[in-house]
From TrEMBL:
SUPFAM superfamilies tied to this protein: Dimeric alpha+beta barrel (SSF54909)
Listed Pfam families: NIPSNAP
Domain NIPSNAP: from-to ranges: 14-106
Protein species of origin: Streptomyces smaragdinus
Name this protein carries in UniProt: NIPSNAP domain-containing protein
Length: 108
């Protein structure tokens, strides 16, 4: 398995309000499309099933850290991104989150 030099994968761990799971799911559905529109590859949101009922994850990649930083800058002024941010703010479905930057293991 090869990876492109510089690929960065962002891992998000969310602590969510378990009573607002559907609000969080809508938030996730929006971001999958948005990340892809901005040149990333969204690997999906992963919602609680068994075990902890208030932890969710998301994974998405960009070709480089610079591409990710451009997405972050552009998302601050994009109306659809702002709507998604506002959904999370107004419903308070996200209590907190952690962001990690990962790189694929080169096994060649």
């Amino acid at each position: 398995m090869q990876h492109h030099v510089g690929v960065i994968t962002i891992h998000l761990k969310y602590e969510i309000d378990a009573d607002k799971l559907e609000d969080f799911a809508e938030y996730g559905r929006r971001w999958v499309g948005l990340v892809n529109r901005f040149g990333g590859t969204h690997h999906g949101y992963f919602l609680p099933s068994e075990g902890d009922s208030d932890i969710a994850y998301a994974l998405f990649s960009f070709p480089s850290l610079a591409a990710y930083e451009q997405y972050r800058t552009d998302s601050m002024t994009d109306p659809e991104c702002q709507d998604a941010f506002e959904l999370a703010r107004s419903t308070r479905c996200i209590k907190r989150y952690e962001r990690r930057f990962l790189r694929p293991l080169d096994v060649t």
